[in-house]
Amino acid sequence: MKRILSMLLALTMLFALVSCGNDNQPSNNGGNQNTNQTDDNNTTDDNTTTDDWHIGIITGTVSQSEDDLRGAEAIQTKYGAEKVKLATYPDNFTEELETTIQTIVNMSDDPLMKAIIVNQSVPGTAEAFTQIKERRPDILCIAGEAHEDLPVVGASADLVCNNDFVSRGYLMIRTAHELGCDTFVHISFPRHMSYETMSRRVAVMKEACKEFGMTFVEETAPDPTTDVGVTGAQAYVLEKAPEWIQKYGQNSAYFCTNDAHTAPLLQRLLELGGYFIEADLPSPLMGYPNALGDLDLTAEAGDFDAILAKVEQAVVDAGGDGRFGTWAYSYGYCLSAGLAQHAINVIEGNSEINNMDDVAAALQEYSPKAAWNGSGYTNADTGVKEDNVFLIYQDTYIMGNPGKFMGATDVEVPEKYYTVK
User: Fold this and answer.
1) Residue 106 host element (H or E)
2) 387-390, long-range: CB within 8 Å, 24+ apart, which pairs?
3) DSSP letter string, 195-239
């Protein structure tokens, strides 16, 4: 017992000496002692960001939104699979809402996760972002091409970027008029028309048709997320398009709100006549390769200048000279890659999350030869402009011999269209 007491006394004296020794040391060794220590947010003591970050990108699958996924893969290739995590939500996302939400939320389980980007931001994204912010408020939540009402998504996201449905609604009609069209045919279905972005765009298109003396027509095609599926929806468009073209004539221009409808519509327009200004989410890859007989673009993969040149030549060879348009660089690809790049720039302290110039600079990295324009979103009901919701668009390119940009980004859209609904 005496031996044990002696040992305890010795240990107590040793701890006291160590404590005194530490009290006599400089607190920070000239300010440099703790520079290698990081906190839970992976920042150093002087608040500089380390490179210990991960980002997550969630997109649709190849069958629903291939360009979105390819843009995400491009960022993953650039920074590595260790830093950039990818996931896809179900094709039938309207019926599998909980799976969609959980897929997005699961990204926040990664302790190094610093930003989560969803493109396209289908229903459930706002709820997923709300759950993420409750558990990890440090994570940047970025929505690309939101399907839910923009004020709702903007309330839970740090940044929302959508195609400029107001400006484009006017500019597509204006471009069709410049090309000599007298009728504009809009193809959609009830789910899409319940979205504010799409219903407001239709209202703008109708008003623009009045301005340019054109006829506006609405046609319906099946929703690919229902039981009919993508195959059934595409078969319907293949069957109905010849009737539409015969009914509305060779000077009619066509637009569909769903990606899956695009290829069969383009196929029939190439065969039978009519115009196509640009897709809902424009890209030389959106519908054109399939409509042109599964055009092989393997050698051109990732090079949009080469992709556009090959698609354009095939369109001209098929008799579509001057009748078919696109954006020179894929919107879905640019949005996935550009928003992810913007997030990384913000994480590394080189950009501000809601600076439009910084967003545009990130997008420009993936579309070097095309002009962009955009503005903040204004709520048509309240007149309030949202600080974190941006509407963007790229110049329209009409394929032909020679092809040409239409200068759409230089056109001043009349102010009245921003409050049309």
Assistant:
1) helix 97-106
2) 387/354, 388/154, 388/157, 388/158, 388/159, 388/160, 388/353, 388/354, 389/150, 389/151, 389/153, 389/154, 389/160, 389/161, 389/162, 390/159, 390/160, 390/161, 390/162, 390/356, 390/359
3) SHHHHHHHHHHHHHHHHHT-EEEEEE---TTSTTHHHHHHHHHHH
109 three-class SS: helix
pLDDT tens sequence across 117-139 = 999 999 999 999 999 999 999 99
Q: Residue 250 carries which DSSP code?
A: T
Specify the 3-state DSSP secondary structure of 56: strand
- Element housing 14 (H / E): helix 2-23
- Do the beta carbons of residue 196 and residue 267 sit within 8 Å? no
Residue 389 β-bridge partners: 160
| Residue pointed to by tokens 């493109």 | 119
Angstrom CA distances, 329 to 25, 73, 156, 337, 402, stand at 61, 16, 29, 12, 18
* Contacts of 202 by beta carbon, 8 Å cutoff, 6+ apart: 169, 186, 188, 193, 218
Q: Dihedral sign for Cα 74, 144, 258, 213, please.
A: negative
Q: Provide the residue count of the chain.
A: 421
Q: Which residues of 329-338 are buried (b: 16+ CB within 10 A; e: fewer)?
A: bbbbbbbbbb
Which residues, at least 6 apart from 62, have a Cβ–Cβ distance to it below 8 Å? Answer: 69
Q: Residue 82 half-sphere exposure, CB side, CA atoms within 13 Å?
A: 3
If you average pLDDT over residues 1-22, what whole number do you get? 40
At 420, the pLDDT band (50, 70, 90 cuts) reads confident
DSSP code string of 141-161: EEEEEESS-HHHHHHH-SEEE
Pair 158, 388: CB distance under 8 Å: yes
Nearest to 57 by CA among 79, 29, 27, 32: 79
pLDDT tens digit sequence for 326-344: 999 999 999 999 999 999 9
- pTM attached to this predicted model: 0.78
Instruction: Please give the single-letter amino acid code of residue 155.
Output: A
Instruction: Look up residue 44 and give its DSSP letter.
Output: B
Give the DSSP H/E element, type plus range, for residue 364: helix 356-364
Give the largest Cα separation in the chain, rounded: 109
